[in-house]
């Protein structure tokens, strides 16, 4: 018991000393004066035609403390009226006291912050100055900015409703053509997912635009009836488990997501066969691929240049039929019967491993 009392006494004294040190540091540092921020423009219509030109210059004053400190400064951008919830942050160098952004650079900041291209956005900007755990904020600047679209976003599917789980490094990239992103893939009932703009949590996240959703995740304006919001971040899938066609329309005036049943609901066929120029397009002699389980198959073959082929689930022209998504080509994405074309091999002749993942809706042609 005496040893325990000694240990507790030492721990208390240590805590008291550390607390006193922190209080002393704070007393020496002081609370700091309020930083300020100004901009030489508050109404911007950005255009790709002059993206190298100056858009706006920010000027700031740093907070002053009782002693000299190293500051970490950043600019925060958010939709007006949200009290900077879900703000996008970019680092600035405190000692510079000003920063000038070209039209192209500032347009990227606007798009990365989630502001719509082609429309006037009311935004708020402030500077954050940090010293350790202490953060001070400047006055807020209100701006109206109309950015331009550089390209349509890419969408990566992730979540326990998907076939890849919540690992962002394995997120499924949808096939993008113009403003549409599409994939035929597996979804599981009663579970959730969302879309990322990259294979990591840091950066863009896309979910339904509803009350209660994190501001930084709000994106889709309309969605199919088998989807519902799972606040504060995700989308819940309420349809039956199986294969679905996922289509996103990223047009700035639309921003919709539609999930509809795939024409083929079999994501784990017993067999998959190769048919094409490699066997004279004879379905009856289609080449059996090796099953790896869970909808994955592979086969090594000598492919002549300009070969074309498809995948079958039987040695006949039956219902189980997969090819390149939508039309002839070599996108790496599967499309089911009625929504596909031939896979066109555009490499030189040689030995290749052909792999297909029916559940994920993708295929690969890899040289050996």
Q: Which key features would you list for this structure?
A:
368 residues, mainly beta, Immunoglobulin-like, 3 domains, seven-stranded mixed β-sheet, seven-stranded antiparallel β-sheet, 2 helices, 32 strands, 10% helix, elongated
Strand and helix layout:
Layout lengths: L1 H28 L6 E4 L3 E3 L8 E8 L10 E8 L8 E5 L5 E5 H10 L8 E11 L2 E4 L3 E6 L9 E3 L13 E2 L1 E3 L2 E8 L4 E5 L8 E4 L9 E3 L1 E2 L3 E4 L3 E4 L4 E8 L6 E6 L11 E4 L10 E2 L1 E4 L2 E8 L4 E5 L8 E5 L8 E3 L3 E2 L1 E2 L5 E8 L4 E6 L1
Parallel strand pairs: 2-9, 15-16, 17-21
Antiparallel strand pairs: 1-3, 3-6, 4-5, 4-7, 7-8, 7-9, 10-11, 10-14, 12-13, 13-20, 14-15, 14-19, 18-19, 20-21, 22-23, 22-26, 24-25, 25-31, 26-27, 26-30, 27-28, 27-29, 31-32
CATH class of the largest domain: Mainly Beta
Q: Give unreliable regions as ranges.
A: 7-27
Helix-strand category: mainly beta
In percent, how much strand structure appears in the residues?
35-45%
User: Given the C-alpha coordinates, what overall shape results?
Assistant: elongated
User: What separation lies between the terminal Cα atoms?
Assistant: 71 Å
Radius of gyration: 28 Å
Oligomer: single chain
> What's the number of domains?
3
Give the number of helices.
Answer: 2
CATH architecture of the largest domain: Sandwich
Walk me through this protein's architecture.
- The protein has 368 residues and is mainly β.
- It folds into three domains: 36-146, Immunoglobulin-like (Sandwich); 156-261, Immunoglobulin-like (Sandwich); 273-367, Immunoglobulin-like (Sandwich).
- The protein contains two helices and 32 strands.
- It has helices at residues 2-29, 103-112; strands at residues 36-39, 43-45, 54-61, 72-79, 88-92, 98-102, 121-131, 134-137, 141-146, 156-158, 172-173, 175-177, 180-187, 192-196, 205-208, 218-220, 222-223, 227-230, 234-237, 242-249, 256-261, 273-276, 287-288, 290-293, 296-303, 308-312, 321-325, 334-336, 340-341, 343-344, 350-357, 362-367.
- The strands form six sheets. Strands 10, 11, 14, 15, 16, 18 and 19 form a seven-stranded mixed sheet that branches. Strands 22, 23, 26, 27, 28, 29 and 30 form a seven-stranded antiparallel sheet that branches. Strands 2, 4, 5, 7, 8 and 9 form a six-stranded mixed sheet that branches.
- Strand 4 and strand 5 form a beta hairpin.
- The longest helix is centred in the first third of the chain and has 28 residues, at 2-29.
- The chain is elongated.
């Amino acid at each position: 018991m005496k040893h325990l009392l000694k240990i507790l006494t030492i721990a208390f004294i240590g805590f008291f000393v550390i607390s006193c040190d922190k209080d002393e540091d704070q007393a020496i540092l002081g609370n700091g004066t309020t930083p300020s921020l100004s901009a030489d423009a508050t109404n911007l219509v950005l255009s790709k035609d002059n993206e190298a030109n100056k858009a706006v210059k920010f000027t700031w004053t740093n907070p002053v403390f009782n002693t000299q400190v190293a500051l970490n400064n950043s600019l925060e951008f958010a939709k007006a009226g949200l009290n900077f919830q879900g703000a996008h942050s970019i680092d600035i160098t405190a000692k510079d006291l000003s920063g000038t952004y070209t039209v192209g650079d500032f347009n990227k900041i606007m798009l990365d912050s989630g502001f719509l291209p082609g429309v006037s956005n009311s935004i708020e900007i402030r500077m954050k100055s940090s010293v350790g755990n202490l953060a001070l904020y400047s006055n807020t600047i209100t701006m109206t900015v109309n950015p331009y679209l550089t390209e349509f976003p890419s969408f990566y599917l992730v979540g326990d409703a998907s076939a890849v789980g919540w690992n962002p490094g394995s997120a499924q990239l949808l096939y993008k053509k113009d403003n549409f992103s599409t994939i035929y893939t597996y979804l599981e009932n009663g579970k959730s997912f969302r879309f990322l703009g990259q294979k990591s949590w840091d950066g863009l996240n896309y979910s339904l635009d509803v009350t209660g959703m994190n501001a930084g995740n709000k994106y889709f304006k309309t969605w199919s009836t088998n989807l519902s919001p799972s606040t504060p971040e995700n989308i819940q899938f309420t349809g039956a488990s199986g294969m679905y066609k996922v289509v996103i329309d990223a047009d700035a005036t639309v921003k919709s997501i539609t999930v509809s049943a795939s024409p083929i609901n079999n994501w784990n066929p017993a067999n998959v066969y190769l048919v094409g120029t490699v066997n004279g397009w004879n379905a009856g002699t289609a080449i059996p691929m090796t099953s790896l389980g869970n909808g994955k198959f592979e086969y090594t073959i000598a492919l002549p240049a300009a070969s074309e082929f498809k995948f079958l689930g039987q040695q006949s022209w039956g219902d189980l039929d997969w090819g390149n998504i939508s039309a002839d080509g070599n996108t790496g994405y599967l499309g089911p019967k009625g929504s596909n074309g031939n896979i066109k091999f555009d490499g030189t002749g040689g030995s290749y491993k052909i792999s297909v993942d029916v559940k994920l809706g993708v295929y690969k042609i890899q040289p050996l």
